[in-house]
Amino acid sequence: MEDVKYDRQLIDRKSEFVRKTRFSYEYRGQNFYQWEFVVLIGFIFWSTVGIVSYIIYRIAQPVA
Fold first, then answer.
1. Inter-CA distances, 61 with 23, 25, 56, Å
2. How far apart are the C-alpha atoms of 14 and 38, rounded to whole Å?
3. Which residues pair with 33 in a beta bridge?
């Protein structure tokens, strides 16, 4: 019974941590907003994918 109570407290604490750090997380007292990193990394990733796929498309074109 004590273990169940402890697990429930741990789960509550973990969900509180997740709720607190859903849109931003703290690192050494400074707030970094997660969505900025997500947007930046996504933009770089999809730009790279687009450029590489365009180069492959141009190379794969038969020479007229």
1. 44, 47, 9
2. 23
3. 24
Q: Which domain holds residue 52?
A: 2-60
Q: How far is CA 54 from CA 40, 46, 59, in A?
A: 21, 12, 9
Q: Is the pTM higher than 0.70?
A: no
Q: Are 32 and 24 in contact (CB under 8 A)?
A: yes
Spatial neighbors of 34 by CB under 8 A, at least 6 apart, are 22, 23, 24, 25
pLDDT tens for 18-38 read 555 555 555 555 555 667 778
Residue spans of alpha helices (H) in 1-64: 2-20, 34-60
Distance separating alpha carbons of residues 18 and 28, to the nearest angstrom: 17
